[in-house]
Amino acid sequence: MKILTFDLVALIFAIGDWYSVVRKDEKLQYVFKPLVPLTLILMLAVSSSANGITSERRYWIIAALIFALFGDVFLMLPFDGFIFGLASFAICHILIISGLLLTSNAKNSHIKFEYLILFLVAYLIIGAAPLYGIVKGLFKNKLQKLLVPVFIYSLLLTFMASTLLASQVSGHFLYLAGIGGAFFVASDMILAFNKFAKPIRNGDLLVHVTYHVAIASIATAFVWIPCN
Fold it and tell me: What's the pTM value of the predicted model, to 2 decimals?
């Protein structure tokens, strides 16, 4: 019940943020956008780990969401903080990956590495077309200096999402976390494509909605396992 309450509060803040995007109300966005990851961080901090998940893994996710919060702030400030936001979210992904790998085989937590490779290849194949469009957009806008950071970030993003999909607890996959990773990939792809390649109708709103689904799913997965 406590976890559901936090998720509902996060949803209310997220809806406030979505409304601010639709209304193009930056002041309202400054209020609601940071409150979503803050609520999820608090949920992880005060909730017990789900059955079979080590507390250490939960702490890694808390650290990752703190950097996601930094990324949120950089992307909404009234200056071009894209590279700082990119760096913050890259650290977020590194923390998730590190937390899962370093706690693999601890108690009931495992990573199925054959699935990790499979999911990574699948993500790279699926993401090839939009990434090509993003790269073309970078050249078109004379932003070649962003090619290496965007490429490195894309690899980290897909590796993070694949690691979440391949993680198991007590023989069960963390489906909710895997869904969150997939929405994270979708959110960042939409953001980059909308910014550098071609404007997408309601692109900003789609970025926010998919991102909030992503972080809420990932956070909830480490304090609640539906199948247990």
Answer: 0.91
